[in-house]
Amino acid sequence: MSVAIIGTGAVAGLCVSWLERAGAGPVAVCGRTPLERFTITGDGAGGTDVRTIAVLPPPDAPVDWVLLTVKAQDTASTAPWLDQLVGPGTVVVVLQNGVDHVERVQPLVADAEVLPVLVMAAAERTGPGAVTHRIGSLLVTAQNPAAQRLSELFDGGATVHQDPDLLTAAWRKLLVNVGGNCITALTGRRAEVLRVPEVRELCRAVLTETAAAGRSVGALLTDADVDGTLRLYDSYPDDNGSSMYYDRMSGRPLEHELIPGAVVRAAERGGVDVPVTRAIWALTKAVSVGSAGA
Ligand SMILES: NC(=O)C1=CN([C@@H]2O[C@H](COP(=O)(O)OP(=O)(O)OC[C@H]3O[C@@H](n4cnc5c(N)ncnc54)[C@H](OP(=O)(O)O)[C@@H]3O)[C@@H](O)[C@H]2O)C=CC1
Ligand SMILES: CC(C)(CO)C(=O)C(=O)O
């Protein structure tokens, strides 16, 4: 099985780590800057071991699996890699947050199979090829033959859950991101900020709106999902950040369109009022590098 990962950040590092544990052999990594190895600290389950894993340079021919791990706003810029790596039989696995993976990637890969994957894990890129794996080793995807093969590819490294209702699963993950990612990015504080009582109430308001927006487009979310997400925030270690927090701290653009923007757009389609989420969207857009004046 040939595997090429596009991107050299946190989720790319997780994939390299999981595939090495799965015995998948060295995988190729395609970055904006060439990389020869990853150093992974931790295992997402409390372990603190440090592993160095060598990776292969970008292949010059199509591969069986392309794992796309760039931020949503960088997806279009990967077109040259996709042209090089995708051929008949390639499955393009999109490991991103959000709810519209297929719409974003399918136009770049003609009729190749696109498999959306929700990454139920937390990791931080701390330097070039250096990734700290804090929480989790679960991937959630659709229920189909490609997903079954993905499960076999990662077996021994990460668990792949095939969910018959991926729309609801993606909105459930969006709940986690719309509060946790946006608030940590806006405040410049890690997960401990989510336990400030007034911030917790703000999160409850955003999550309640998000659940309503999700329901308006067919996701089966209830108040129990809101409560479950708040309990998840309570369980985070104080030093857990979020992918949007790391981008804010590094002066990179934010995924404001992928996360609160997706809620606002769905709410508009569904005729749902989401004033608090709209405010969060405006603020994350305003602080995102490159958005000045937009
Ligand atoms: N980090 C986390 O814990 C989690 C993240 N996610 C989601 O996963 C996705 C990836 O996030 P994450 O790994 O954190 O992001 P990172 O910012 O850590 O990594 C993104 C990588 O993509 C690279 N990249 C951008 N454009 C290109 C390109 N054209 N060609 C090659 N590489 C490119 C970046 O390069 P450069 O180094 O040059 O910037 C960077 O290495 C996001 O949608 C995020 O929301 C989901 C769950 C958990
Ligand atoms: C780890 C988690 C759930 C944090 O909100 C995430 O998805 C992210 O950082 O993007």
TrEMBL record:
This is 2-dehydropantoate 2-reductase. SUPFAM superfamilies: 6-phosphogluconate dehydrogenase C-terminal domain-like, NAD(P)-binding Rossmann-fold domains. InterPro entries: 6-PGluconate_DH-like_C_sf (IPR008927), 6PGD_dom2 (IPR013328), ApbA (IPR003710), KPA_reductase (IPR013752), KPR-Related (IPR051402), KPR_N (IPR013332), NAD(P)-bd_dom_sf (IPR036291). Residues 165-287 form the Ketopantoate reductase C-terminal domain. It comes from Rhodococcus antarcticus. Pfam families: ApbA, ApbA_C. Transmembrane segments: none annotated. Catalyzes the NADPH-dependent reduction of ketopantoate into pantoic acid. It catalyses: (R)-pantoate + NADP(+) = 2-dehydropantoate + NADPH + H(+). GO terms for molecular function: 2-dehydropantoate 2-reductase activity.
